[in-house]
Amino acid sequence: MAKRVFRPYEPDLPLPLPPDLRQWLPADHTIYLLSDLVDHLDLSPITAVYDQGDGGGNPPYHPVMLTKLLFYAYAQGVVSSRAIAAKTYEDVAFRVLTADQHPDFRTISDFRERHLPALLPLFQETVRLAGRLGLVKLEHVAQDGSKILANASKHRAMSSARMQQAEARLGHEIQALLAAARQADAAEDAAYGAERTGDEVPVDLSGEVTRRERRLATIRAAKAALEQEAHAAAEAIRAADAAERQRRAEAGEPKKPGRPPDPPGVPTDAAQRNFTDPDSRIMKNADHAFVQAYNAQLAVDASPHQLIVGCAVTNQSADAPHLEPMVEQVQQTTGATPREWSGDAGYFSAHNLDVLGAAGIASFIPPDRQRHGQPPLPAGVARVLAAAGIAPPVLGAETVEGAVQAAMRAKLRTEPGRAAYAKRKQTVEPVFGQIKERRGLRRFLLRGLAKVTGEWTLWCLTHNLGKLVRALRASSGLRQRLAMG
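and the corresponding structure tokens:
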């Protein structure tokens, strides 16, 4: 029987790699297409930072290379600066993208944090680029929000009521510890003589006093911040009421009923603040669990490419206040107005429907959670009831309904209404799934609303770049249009 022959295995043999890095990977690899896309973006907000230098030290890494490295890493779900730095050695694609350069993790981390403000304009540019390539249709836009964990524990949060209790308790504890220290000093003087001045705190008590004083200072600072927020909110309410009264007076409309509001301007007992990330809030997630989180918002175009056309982060748990700003952002970014807009019941309000109606956008937002399996009315019956101005009956609905809610329920029970609202589930929800499940975003790395906004924008920007890369890979025509600018 012939002896089995194996392929040669010689780990010490030098590997004859092509001298041109572009030959290490297929010509249509993601990094080449992503690199081409980034070259079409205006990176001047990033590169301009490096225009002025003192000429000392080693030359910095090229900001375009670091930008491409950061974008590709996030597109692959690699977000740790240490992991990104390791990939430049271990992963061929990363190594080719950086031209065999290896920035350390601190360089990558500082670069990301330094250029967070430039990410929103770059996100808007990717949307406009996708529009020029014909990938954004704006026939239908779906909006949704998702709670993403903050880089903080909910156990490090405290309500205003608990702050007041803790402030009083810590004050008493500090006084008790100081009294105990004085008693210990007196006892030592009696036992060992009066060599001590009497001002020292015994070693076993000094640490306890210091810890409580530090904790008390932290609580007082958080309490002051809550009071400042409550005062600002009260002033905003007064200003909005005064503006509305002035508008009515100038328009000759009836006066606004009631007296001008006089909110107290003090935090409620339930007002909370987290000591690790003060901007984050305790929110209820989809599993009805209370978590320390931010509310990440998306507006996604209903074309097959699932491109994000609007993104934002808020520390408000409710979704409804964020529809109007998102509509404005999408219009500003794309320079056009969507034909239809959908959202779940969390976005329903008469004001939001008025906003969409004033913009000429057809709204599909249920006033309550949609029941699965509820059959639509026959088309003929729906037309007759609509012509008569009668809202179709809704199973389980209240006897007395507001006109706005009833009209929307009737609209969503028609075949066109059901078809339009059904686009929401297949448009925006899969995008959250791709970002949170496939790419692994479960908790923000940065702290503070401003930084978290930049981080979320980076996730959304790289989502769009990934979608554009797939579209370019599938269509030679798109690649030609991109090359032609």
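(Above: one complete record from the training split.) Strands lie at 141-149, 157-159, 272-274, 281-284, 290-301, 308-314, 340-342, 362-364.
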